[in-house]
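note to self — DONT lose this again. spent like an hour looking for the file last time. sequence + predicted structure for the chain T wanted, 158 res
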Amino acid sequence: MRVLFVCTGNTCRSALAEAIAVREAAARAMSDVQPSSAGTSAWDGAPASDGALLVGIERRLDVNAHRSRQLSREIVAESDLILAMGPHHVERIEALGGEGKTFLITDYAERSDDGRAIVDPFGGGLEIYRSTVDELERIVGQVFDRISIERSKNSGAV
């Protein structure tokens, strides 16, 4: 299962969510879950932001080798589940063919339709990055809970 996380620049939120998802997949022995990330307005090849790198080090999240990539129709097509950080990202992903497999990450994780975005820490201090990672760790954990539950339901179906 290819899970794509999407934000704007692919240097903060989606890069951190991808790193958290890699860790979560390993911890849950879900080796078939392949997290990746992209941005709706990314500059291909940009590194993670300084704040993401520093908080990544604090939380043992590997974003050192991360390089941003621009969201494309091809990336959308090759993804099985696409989780966006904000409602405007959902609109862009769906315009690239992602309807039916694209969700606002908070809505998917919490099984709601609140439309609550993950705060963009770009340009902020370390405290906002820490707060964003706190929320992403919780939300990504809930995403994996839902994936596990849905797999159990599907494997039980005859």
